[in-house]
Amino acid sequence: MKPIPNRPLIISTTTNTGQALARERMPFADAVNLFPLDWALCVRRALDAVHPSLVLVLETEIWPNFLREAGRRRIPVIFVSGRISDRSFTRYQRYLGVFGFFLRPFLGNVLSNASAFLMQSEKDAERVRAVGAPADRVRVSGNLKYDLELPAPTPLSNWLATEIKRSGRSPIIVAGSVCRDGRAARAHCLWNFARRVSEGAACACAPQAGVL
After folding, report:
1. What is the spatial distance between Cα 56 and Cα 68, in angstroms, rounded to a whole number?
2. Cis ω on the peptide bond leading into residue 105 (within 30° of 0)?
3. pLDDT (tens digit, 0 to 9) for every residue of the chain, 212 residues total?
4. pTM assigned to the model
5. Other residues' Cβ atoms within 10 Å of the Cβ of residue 20
6. Cα dihedral 91→132→110→90 (10° resolution)
7. Is the separation of the CB atoms in 88 and 125 below 8 Å?
């Protein structure tokens, strides 16, 4: 990451797991802390302490009081790699269908405090506009997870590549971020899926960090 002189980088997360990962994987950050509770007093105290020049929100965590207070202070807030899942959008539609007379102006007012919405796909862009984001501030920019540089080869990856090539297996199907609970069942489902894709398919399970 390219440093910006005189601009400290502060990472905020909403969970303890996120805290641990941020501290482990982002040693370049000047500070790692928990995102404030979305109560007006908590938000004001956090912003008073940090004085951010810019706030980047990954995916689409919508915190009304935070957005309103940032807007009042004229702090730019940009949603990056934004997405709205099928489940979340269905919930929004259900609530808007019942309480639209109140929710539509409320969400429109809250989301108007954001400077831009950089969404993962056109579907996500359509959904955030439907929820109330200003149409002229919504763009499709893709998924940041796919913009990362590939890591350098390791002895393990070189060995796997050699073994896959030697056995003639393809394609390779990877199940990422597999949790401990139900891992055997997921591995069985993955294997069945791989066999349906191709008789020569190879499959691999990549566990979550810290899960052995």
Report:
1. 15
2. no
3. 566 677 899 999 999 888 998 999 899 899 999 999 999 999 999 999 999 999 999 988 899 999 999 999 999 999 999 999 999 999 999 999 999 999 999 999 999 999 999 999 999 999 999 999 999 999 999 888 776 677 788 898 888 888 888 888 888 877 776 665 656 666 667 677 777 777 777 777 777 654 44
4. 0.72
5. 14
6. 10
7. no
